[in-house]
Design goal:
By secondary structure, the chain is an alpha+beta fold. Helices cover 43% and strands 19% of the residues. Residues 7-138 form the Purine catabolism PurC-like domain.
Length: 519
């Protein structure tokens, strides 16, 4: 079932360890231990799937492969947290790792990610004491009375895009160490969670060869199989199967699982069984890989071919249907794969399998300039070179983090690149880093800080006009030559040539930071 962090900390092997971060999460349940041999996420992204979710995992590591790279240590913590990890036990601080850098501690603390540092005087690389003691505690049999509350509470603490039926079942699978299969009324698998995740067992084939009565549990080929039929308004009839290897599920575990699924379907499973593009887009954005590939196969959509995303912020939903038709009519001339869906007031367009040789970069800008419904569009963010659906999801989340700030940061600007979005996210993090970081960034603007005219001109030139003199002059209602003269005087005052990219970048970040703190 698992054990809480605070229960593990009193064990002899961890008694002298120090909790550095994540003190608010000591009531979290650890369901598994892993050994983090390769901590370099750049290497992992190239060779492994990182879109899996392993709830309640605690990793043992010394950060050996990235001991000299603080940024990679921070990236590792962020990735582990995104994958459901709750913390790490850090070995050999003072030998392999000279010390835990303040930036690493700040990153972990911001995520409520637990770092447990083993005593510095331990000059050995024995992990066995911790592994043996912690696994013995984790594997102890505990009552199943609190499964529903425990899993729902964990799911509720996750980011909104992860609060799904699929993630709930993954949480449950890890907790019970059980395979879970959910089928619709047509006996099509809607969710399949294997335990362990890399299992090659053909669960569907196994289920086809066994007959189980509703609410009963049988043994077949070393598996105990529990079956329950559920009905939910909007989803119809659903068949739930729990398959546990070499062990019977208790009656309480089966009952709690059924109750948990009903709760999850009511909270996060509206129209869970639908087969349409809306369900596919939700599956992509919610990281429901099993459901995503099933729907893509049924809809004959090549999700692996998706390479480009447009995100359109709308101000008038009355024209949404016509706008979607206009986009599909335009985009289908260039792409074999075209999926468009409205989420709240944002239109998501997923494009793939480009069939022309012309540049893709101008397609989005051309569309928004010529569309008869362009007045309904506040902005469009162009997100190219997406490698997979994981990139689609992370990019979508990044844009949504800053979407509400865009109109206030970039006046009268409609077209945005994903690079500009990343710069806004960077400036936000810079502000969160503290007053010293902000002051250092804004120091560059100090020579013109007392001149509202120069400050306004520089911000407009770099942020709103994209360093275009003509656009800047139109926005400020002054002559183009006046803009050129002002920019020349500003460059002289700052000591930076703001018309040269290598020098204008720092000015760009400073202007962005200035507008952010002025919002």
């Amino acid at each position: 079932m698992g054990a809480k962090i605070k229960e593990l900390l009193v064990l002899p092997s961890l008694r002298e360890a120090e909790v550095l971060t994540g003190h608010n999460n000591l009531n979290q349940t650890v369901t598994s231990l892993s050994f983090l041999e390769i901590a370099d996420m750049e290497y992992c992204e190239e060779h492994f799937e990182l879109n899996e979710y392993h709830t309640g995992e605690l990793a043992l590591t010394s950060f050996f492969s990235i001991r000299e790279d603080i940024d990679k240590q921070c990236a590792t913590i962020c990735q582990l947290q995104r994958m459901g990890g709750i913390g790490i036990i850090l070995y050999n601080v003072g030998t392999v790792l000279p010390r835990v850098a303040p930036k690493v501690l700040e990153t972990a603390q911001a995520l409520d990610f637990i770092i447990i540092q083993m005593p510095k005087q331990y000059r050995c690389i024995r992990y066995s004491e911790v592994i043996i003691e912690l696994m013995a505690e984790i594997l102890k049999k505990r009552p199943a009375d609190n499964i529903v509350n425990e899993v729902v509470e964990k799911a509720s603490l996750l980011p909104e895009h992860l609060r799904t039926v699929d993630i709930t079942l993954k949480l449950l699978s890890d907790l019970l160490r059980t395979n879970i299969v959910l089928m619709n009324a047509d006996n099509e698998v809607t969710n399949q969670i294997k335990w362990p995740r890399n299992s090659t067992t053909d669960l569907e084939r196994l289920l086809r060869r066994v007959a189980v009565e509703d609410g009963q549990q049988v043994l077949k080929n070393d598996f105990s199989i529990f079956y329950k039929e559920l009905y939910q308004k909007g989803n119809g009839s659903l068949s739930l199967y729990l398959l546990k290897e070499h062990e019977l599920l208790t009656e309480a575990e089966c009952e709690q699982t059924v109750e948990l699924l009903r709760v999850a379907l009511n909270l996060w499973g509206k129209k869970h069984g639908e087969v349409n593009e809306a369900a596919l887009v939700h599956a992509i954005l919610n990281d429901e890989s099993e459901k995503m590939y099933r729907l893509a196969n049924q809809l004959k959509i090549d999700v692996k071919g998706i390479e480009l995303m447009w995100l359109l912020q709308l101000n008038d939903l009355k024209e949404e249907k016509k706008l979607k038709e206009d986009i599909l009519s335009y985009a289908s001339k260039f792409y074999k794969t075209c999926v468009t869906q409205l989420l709240d007031d944002q239109l998501i367009v997923l494009l793939g399998n480009y069939r022309h040789n012309d540049s893709e970069l101008v397609l989005g800008e051309t569309f928004i300039q010529n569309s008869p419904y362009k007045e309904s569009i506040d902005s469009i963010v162009l997100c190219p070179r997406l490698r997979n659906t994981t990139d689609v999801r992370t990019t979508y989340q990044l844009v949504n983090e800053v979407a509400l700030q865009l109109p206030k940061l970039f006046h009268e600007k409609k077209n945005f690149s994903i690079s500009e979005i990343r710069q806004v996210a960077y400036a936000n993090k810079l502000i969160q880093s503290g007053e010293a970081e902000v002051e250092e960034t804004l120091a560059l603007l100090s020579p013109i800080m007392d001149s509202k005219e120069q400050l306004m001109t520089l911000c407009s030139f770099l942020l709103d006009a994209g360093a275009d003199f003509q656009i800047c002059s139109e926005q400020l209602f002054i002559h183009k030559n006046t803009v050129k003269y002002r920019i020349k005087k500003i460059s002289e005052a700052l000591g930076y040539n703001v018309m040269r990219f290598s020098e204008s970048y720092e000015c760009y970040v400073a202007c962005l930071t200035y507008r952010l703190i002025s919002l």
